[in-house]
Amino acid sequence: MRDLIKPGVPVVLVDDEEMILKAFRLILKSGGVDDVVTLADSRELLPLLHQRPAAAVVLDLNMPHLSGIELLPQLISDFPHIPVIVVTARDDVMTVVDCMKAGAFDYLVKPVGGELLVASVRKALEMSNLSRELSSLKGRLLDDRLHHPDVFAAIVTGHKKMRAIFQYVEVVAGTQQPIMITGETGVGKELIAQAIHVLSGRSGRFVAVNVAGLDDAMFSDTLFGHKKGAFTGADQARDGLIASAAQGTLFLDEIGDLSEASQIKLLRLLQEQEYYPVGADMMRKSDARVVLATNHDLGELIAAGRFRKDLYYRLFAHRIHIPPLRERIEDIPLLLDHFLGQAAASLIRKKPTAPPELAVLLSLYPFPGNVRELESLVFDAVTRHSGGVLSMESFKAVLGETHPVAGGIVAEKSAEGAEPLTALFGHFPTIAEVEEYLIDQALRMTKGNQGMAASLLGMGRQTLNKRLNKG
Question: What is the pTM (predicted TM-score) of this model?
Answer without folding.
Answer: 0.69
